[in-house]
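Protocol step 4 of 5: obtain the predicted structure for the target chain.
Materials: sequence only (see below). No template structures provided, no constraints applied. The aim of this step is simply to have a reference model before the mutagenesis design in step 5. Sequence pasted as it appears in the construct record:
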Amino acid sequence: MLDSEQGKLIVFSAPSGSGKTTIVRHLLDKDGLNLDFSISATSRARRGKEEHGKDYYFLSPEEFRDHIEKDEFVEWEEVYANNYYGTLKSEVERIWKEGKHAVFDIDVVGGLRVKEKFPERTLAVFVKTPSIEEMERRLRARKTDSEEKIKERVAKAEKEMEFAPRFDVILVNDDLEKAMAEAVELVRKFTQE
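Step 4 output (structure tokens):
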């Protein structure tokens, strides 16, 4: 399906600690942009107070594989063994039926897959910190990850940075207020084209 003529896709991808989620939340709170958040599906366990249908669609690995076999994903990825993430076609259809544009907060590979499937209808934005050192500082300031997890995220970020040139826009978040304002203008311009 996925046939709404007006609906667009706005993808925000970035390494951890870039401020991508804060920017996406800012866009969703902004009047006049006509956006809705595309909720991802995952086979991982819920964390903290996460809710099914709000934070993620929580599926068992078997349910996730069943959706893959039925070609019901726009994009998906097996991040670790039996740990899947993806975007259900039905989620994008839900947003488009409401006459809105879908905003994604997804990993770099998933973001590029969305862009490949819908090249004319997707704005793919790569959010980055001014440096890997700054990203690491932000991750430490969060105080949510172990030292091992921080090192893992930094190593992953170095690989993800190689994909940045394949995105439509690289948004450097060295000043959050400025980055949020730039994101609003990028989205406003793209959705009015």
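Step 4 remarks: Residues 99 and 172 are 30 Å apart (CA to CA). DSSP finds seven helices and nine strands in the chain.
Proceed to step 5.
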